[in-house]
Amino acid sequence: MASPRITLTVPGPHGDREVGISNPDRVLWPEVGITKRELAEYFIAVAEPFLAANGDRPVSLERFPDGVDGESFFSKNPPKGAPDYVEAVTVTYNSGRRHPQLVLTEIASAVWAAQMNTVVFHPWASLAADADNPVELRIDLDPQPGTGFAEAVVAAHALRGVLREAQLEPWIKTSGNRGLHVFCPIVPEHEFLDVRHAVIAAARELERRMPDRVTTAWWKEERGERIFVDFNQANRDRTMAGAYSPRALPDATVSTPVTWDELDGVDPRAFTVRSIPNRLADVGDPWAGMQDAPGRIDTLLQWWERDRADGLGELPFPPDFPKMPGEPPRVQPSRKNPANW
Q: Is the pLDDT confidence value at 37 over 70?
């Protein structure tokens, strides 16, 4: 039998809102027993840092109507019946199609999303006010088979050095799984393709310094036991789990900002829906003030042009993208026809 509907009082910039939660005892994470109500209360508890990282920008909701062990689907557009405080902005996708996309402007929107069985929030790198120009350069350090979180930590420290040489200040968070996400706040004066090229330039420089530890190889058969620097996460409409977003993993882990000083001792499994409110109360938000001094990607774009002059051109785009200028053929190397390469 479904549990009775409840109403949560959610503080916000326009006063308290009453947000209804149907089936509040529905278990979303079976292994740890976390319910829809507990998830909704989590967002209220982490409201300020969650909105600082994910608010005021296009966001996709990853929804799990039968819990994290079941099927999921994405919501990008405001569904019918959404409350008036759930906002939207019209964005342009890679296909050229334009469509409204959800925007969170207060924590009641995230609580409403939890009512819709949303577990993972995927924010864009740009703000709703200027959706075409990112305010963050994002790099995903993705462990491959034979590597893990410890190897990602080593790569992250080296990447921090590369980015600082390019006059950028990197900030870091756990992915909520085995990897790490490195963000640099940037002035929103370049569109997504330029930022992607800046990411590729940084990734190639890191690869030169750690060829046995990291790789920019898009095709899995070429990566080996190295950390993949996923440059394609910098593309338009390509997102990763936002800071303080839960993940659809058995332990209800959360993608969590950390300081560089604590990184070596971090256990990403310890950051969960149940532990993060206490962590914030104890140590605060390591990303507080991240957007106060955005940098510029000029140096990385100079590196990109330098590498192009040396014969290093465009890298593959995701398969759902239209064919892009200068892109190599979209076929894995073991199947390529040299005449077409």
A: yes
Who's near 98: CB < 8 A, 6+ residues apart? 90, 91, 92
Q: For residue 302, is pLDDT > 90?
A: yes
Mean pLDDT computed over 47-65 = 97
User: What are the φ/ψ torsions at residue 63 (nearest 5 degrees)?
Assistant: -110, 140
**Residue 128 zone, left/alpha/beta (φ > 0; ψ -120 to 50; rest):** alpha
Spatial separation of the C-alpha atoms in residues 255 and 241, rounded to whole Å: 7
Characterize the bridge pairing of strands 214-215 and 227-230. Answer: parallel
| Cβ neighbour number for residue 177 with a 10 Å cutoff | 17
Q: Residues near 256 by Cβ (< 8 Å), separated by ≥ 6?
A: 173, 174, 176, 243, 244, 268, 271, 276, 279
User: Is 118 in a helix, a strand, or coil?
Assistant: strand
Task: Specify whether the CB–CB gap between 164 and 107 falls below 8 A.
Answer: no
Q: What sign for the dihedral angle of Cα 44, 45, 51, 53? A: negative
Pick from 58, 317, 290, 295: which is nearest to 189 by CA?
Answer: 295
240, 268, 260, 184 alpha-carbon torsion, rounded to 10°:
0
Question: Which pTM was predicted?
Answer: 0.94
> Nearest Cα to 124, choosing from 231, 237, 233?
237
* pLDDT tens digits, 216-231: 999 999 999 999 999 9
DSSP 4: P
Phi first, then psi, for residue 208 (nearest 5°) are -60, -35
Give me the long-range contacts of 64-68 (CB less than 8 A, separation at least 24). 64/28, 64/117, 64/118, 64/119, 64/248, 65/117, 67/26, 67/27, 67/28, 67/29, 67/30, 68/28, 68/29, 68/30, 68/119, 68/248, 68/249, 68/250, 68/252
Buried b (16+ CB within 10 A) or exposed e, 141-166: bbbbeebebebbbbbbebbbebbeeb
CA angle 79, 85, 88 (to 5 degrees): 55
Residue 301: exposed, middle, or buried by beta-carbon count in 10 A (0-12, 13-18, 19+)?
middle
